[in-house]
Design brief:
One of its GO terms (molecular function) is ATP binding. This protein is α/β, with parallel strands linked by helices and 537 residues long. The chain has 17 helices and twelve strands. Helix content is 65%, strand content 12%. α8 runs antiparallel to α9. The structure holds adenosine-5'-diphosphate.
C-alpha cells in the first residue's frame, strides 16, 4: 500500500515547491523588516525607501501563495487517498473467494474506515507537516544564520536533540497503534453482528448482554486511545522543555552580541521574530514523526490482510463449457479434516443433477469445488479436459451462475439487478424474465424494468429473488447454474415451481444442492448424487 502512495509523489513535490516559495517570501519579509528597523535607527532614508517598496511587493505576493499552499496540500491528500482506497479495493477483489471468506468481514470494513482515516490523518498529513516543518525550519535557520552563525550552532543542537528524543519517546506508539487497530477490527465486526441480529436481540431480551459487551469493547478502545494520547503528551512536554531552554539561550546570545556590537538591533529583532519559525517546526516534527511511524504497522497489517496465500498461476482460458466436468479421484480437506475421499463422477452438459445428503456431509463443499472456490487437496477436476485448477477464474466464472438461499440485490433498477450492469437490450432481458418465470411479477410493477429496488429488495419475496438470480444466469447465457439450498426458505409450492422452471431449461446444466426434495421433481433429474461419509454415491 505504501508503494501506491509513492505514486502520488508528484503532488507532494508540487506542494513542497509552492511551500518553499511561500516560506521564502516570509523569510525575505523578515530580512526587509530588519533593514527597515536599522534604517530608522541610522536615519538612512534611501535604504528605508528601497526596503519599503520591497516589503509591499513581498506582502502582495504572499496572499496568492497562501492560497496556492492550501490548494496544493489539499490536492496531494485527495489524490493520494483516493489512489490508496482504489488500490485497496482492487487488491481486495483480487483475493481468492475462499481466502476472503476465511477472514471476518469486519477486518475489511475496519481497514476501509478506521485504517484509511489513520492513513489520512497520521501518514499523509504527517508527511506534509514534516516537510512543511523542515522547509520552515531551514528557511528561518538560513535567515538567522545570515546575521549570526552562533545561532546556527544552537539551532543544530535543538533540531538533533528534538527529533532524536521524539523518536525514542514515540517508539512504543507503534505497538499501541497496532493494538488499537486490532481492537477497532473486533469492534467493527461486533457492531456489524449486533445490527444484523437486531430482531433476535430484541425478541430474546438480550439488550442487557449487548449493552455489557458494547461497554467492554468501547472501553478497551477508549482506554487505548487514552494511553496513546498520554505518550503524545509526554513527547510534547519534553519537546517544549528543550525548545524553551534553547530559545532563551539564543535570545541571551543575540542580546549579548548586540551589546558587543557584532550585530545590529534590527538583527536582534529578526532573530526574535524568526525564533518562533525555528521552534514551532521543531515541535511539529516531534509531534508528527511518532504519528508517521505508528502507521507503519498499519501498512503491514493491510498488506497482510490483502495477500493471497495460495498463489497458483492460472494459465488456461475457457470460452464455453461444451462437454463434461469430470472428478478424477478427488480428495478434499479443510486443514486436517477430510471431507471428501476419492470422489469420481461426471457431469454432462445440459443435464440436471440433484445433490442430497445429511447435513454436514459435504454437499456445499462439493459445490465449492465445482465453483472453483477451493482446489482439491488431491486428484483433479477436469472441465472439457482442462484442469479446473489451471482455468483462469474470470473465464470460468463467465460460464457459471450461482443461485443462493440469500440472493443479493443492489439498490438500483430491476433492469440493472438482472443485467448486472452489462449491456443487454430489453428483448434479451424480457426473454430471460419469461424463462425464469418472472413475467407476472414484472407486469405488476408500475415502472416495469425501471422499478427501483431499495434496501436489498425488502419487499421482494424469496421466490422472486431466486427467479431474479435465475434470470441473471439465463441472460448471461451461463452454461451451468449451481444452486446452493436455493429453495430452503421458500414455500414448497413456489420451490417446486421454480425447480420445474429450471428443469425445463434446455442445454443448461443444473447442479442443485438441496435438502428440500420433491418426489415428483426428483425423477426429472438425470442423476441424484448422495454425499455421505466422505463419498458420493
Ligand atoms: P453440507 O453442505 O452437506 O451441510 P458442508 O460441505 O457445508 O456440508 O460441510 C462439511 C463439513 O465441513 C462440516 O463438518 C463443516 O463443519 C465443515 N466445514 C465447512 N466449511 C468449512 C470451513 N470453511 N472450514 C472448516 N470446516 C468447514
Amino acid at each position: 500500500m505504501k508503494k501506491t502512495i509513492r505514486k502520488s509523489m508528484i503532488y507532494l513535490i508540487l506542494a513542497f515547491l509552492v511551500l518553499t516559495i511561500g516560506i521564502s517570501i516570509d523569510g525575505y519579509v523578515s530580512i526587509s523588516m530588519m533593514k527597515i528597523i536599522d534604517s530608522a535607527l541610522e536615519g538612512n532614508m534611501t535604504l528605508f525607501k528601497s526596503e519599503a517598496v520591497k516589503i509591499f511587493i513581498l506582502i502582495g505576493l504572499s496572499l496568492p501563495f497562501s492560497i496556492l499552499i492550501s490548494y496544493t496540500r489539499g490536492l496531494y491528500i485527495y489524490k493520494s487517498l483516493v489512489k490508496t482506497k482504489i488500490t485497496y479495493m482492487e487488491r481486495l477483489f483480487a483475493k481468492n473467494i475462499n481466502e476472503f471468506q476465511a477472514e471476518n468481514n469486519g477486518v475489511y470494513l475496519s481497514s476501509m474506515t478506521n485504517d484509511m482515516n489513520n492513513i489520512e490523518k497520521k501518514y499523509l498529513e504527517g508527511i506534509y507537516e514534516v516537510g512543511n516543518s523542515f522547509i520552515g525550519f531551514l528557511i528561518s535557520f538560513i535567515v538567522i544564520a545570515s546575521v549570526s552563525p552562533w545561532a546556527l550552532f544552537i539551532g543544530i543542537g535543538i533540531s538533533v536533540a528534538s527529533v532524536v528524543l521524539s523518536m525514542i519517546v514515540g517508539k512504543p506508539l507503534q505497538k499501541h497503534e497496532k493494538h488499537r487497530a486490532e481492537l477497532f477490527e473486533g469492534y467493527t465486526s461486533y457492531i456489524k453482528e449486533v445490527l444484523g441480529a437486531f430482531q433476535i436481540i430484541k425478541a430474546n431480551n438480550l439488550n442487557e448482554k449487548v449493552k455489557d459487551d458494547f461497554y467492554n469493547k468501547s472501553k478497551d478502545i477508549q482506554y487505548k486511545g487514552y494511553t496513546i494520547d498520554k505518550i503524545h503528551t509526554y513527547t510534547l512536554s519534553i519537546q517544549q522543555f528543550i525548545v524553551y531552554a534553547s530559545t532563551f539561550s539564543i535570545l541571551l546570545i543575540s542580546a549579548f552580541m548586540a551589546i558587543k556590537g557584532s550585530i545590529t538591533t534590527g538583527a536582534v529583532i529578526l532573530i526574535i521574530n524568526n525564533m518562533g519559525r525555528v521552534i514551532f517546526p521543531l515541535m511539529n516534527l516531534g509531534e508528527w514523526f511518532p504519528k508517521i511511524f505508528s502507521v507503519k504497522s498499519l501498512f503491514t497489517k493491510l498488506d497482510h490482510s490483502l495477500e493471497n496465500h495460495e498463489d497458483y498461476e492460472e494459465t488456461t482460458e475457457l470460452n464455453n463449457f461444451k462437454n463434461t466436468i469430470e472428478f478424477q479421484n478427488v480428495f478434499f480437506s479443510y486443514d486436517n479434516k477430510e471431507i471428501l475421499n476419492d470422489i469420481s463422477l461426471n457431469i454432462t452438459k445440459g443435464e440436471k443433477y440433484l445433490v442430497i445428503g445429511p447435513s454436514g456431509g459435504g454437499k456445499s463443499t462439493l459445490l465449492k469445488l465445482l465453483r472453483k472456490y477451493f482446489n482439491p487437496t488431491k486428484g483433479k477436476i477436469l472441465v472439457d479436459g482442462n484442469d479446473l485448477k489451471d482455468l483462469k477464474k474470470e473465464s470460468y466464472f463467465k460460464n457459471i451462475s450461482n443461485v443462493e438461499q440469500q440472493v443479493f440485490l443492489f439498490e438500483d433498477t430491476l433492469r440493472n439487478n438482472i443485467a448486472l450492469y452489462k449491456d443487454y437490450n430489453d428483448d434479451e432481458i424480457n426473454l430471460a424474465i419469461d424463462k425464469a418465470g418472472l413475467k407476472d411479477f414484472l407486469k405488476a410493477l408500475p415502472n416495469g424494468l425501471d422499478t427501483m429496488i431499495y434496501d436489498n429488495g425488502k419487499n421482494i419475496s424469496g421466490g422472486e429473488r431466486s427467479r431474479i438470480a435465475i434470470a441473471r444466469g439465463l441472460l448471461n447465457k451461463s452454461d451451468i447454474i449451481f444452486l446452493d439450498e436455493a429453495f430452503a426458505s421458500l414455500d414448497s409450492n413456489v420451490a417446486r415451481e421454480i425447480e420445474n422452471t429450471l428443469l425445463d431449461l434446455e442445454g443448461v446444466t443444473i447442479v442443485n444442492v438441496s435438502h428440500v426434495i420433491f418426489e415428483e421433481t426428483k425423477n426429472r433429474y438425470n442423476k441424484v448424487f448422495t454425499v455421505k461419509n466422505k463419498a458420493v454415491i
